[in-house]
From TrEMBL:
A single GO BP: sterol metabolic process
Principal location class: membrane
Subcellular location: Membrane
Protein's name according to its UniProt entry: 5715_t:CDS:1
Membrane topology of this protein: Multi-pass membrane protein
Organism encoding this protein: Ambispora leptoticha
Family (UniProt): Belongs to the EBP family.
Molecular-function GO terms, alphabetical: cholestenol delta-isomerase activity
Lineage: Eukaryota, Fungi, Fungi incertae sedis, Mucoromycota, Glomeromycotina
A cellular component term, taken from the record's GO annotations: endoplasmic reticulum
Family annotation (PANTHER family): EMOPAMIL-BINDING PROTEIN-LIKE (PTHR14207:SF1), STEROL ISOMERASE (PTHR14207)
Amino acid sequence: MSLIPTQLKEPTAIYSLLFTLLLFIVSFVVAYNFLSREKFKTSEKYVFMWLTWDALVHLILEGSFVYMSILGRTVETSSGPMAELWKEYGKADSRWLIAEPTVVSIEIPTFILCGPVSVLVLWAITKDHPIRHPLQFLLCTCELYGGYLTWMPEYLTGNKSLAIDNPLYLWVYMVLFNGLWVLVPTFLLVQSWYELLRGAELLSQHRQAKKSL
């Protein structure tokens, strides 16, 4: 009995996972090159790497989905490398194959807003700009809310579009990949929340000091 799922041996599955790995490698290289200076902590390098991957996924992967879905077509009727990648994911969640209106409605602002904001946060990190945490807070809030709107309606209607009986599609495509966009944004949201609180406290102290003069 093979330990490798049959679906994982299919060319489209291999291509999809390799493409995702490629985006991750690009993110690592970009983070290493931009943050090679000693002033950046190791944790910031990991955050930079994540945000680079985040931006690439929003702009390239989700951008291609939006493109295929708003031209009167669907992933299912499209062709090309990106269409094949989304067709593979569509085996786990068929809503992405047919341009389901709720999914498309979520993906449009995710592509238009979250992609550029991710890039702006990256820029703010390299410049140590104070706009970093307000933008990061906005980005993570949008991603978490988008994830909620993506999965809650499906859960409430009985998961009719999900291949939950297939271990690869369930645990890798849906739980692993989508779970990352719950765990990491939650962590970054908390990080930004405390940084914004600290900034508000410093501003309050500054104002109190000015009044006492």
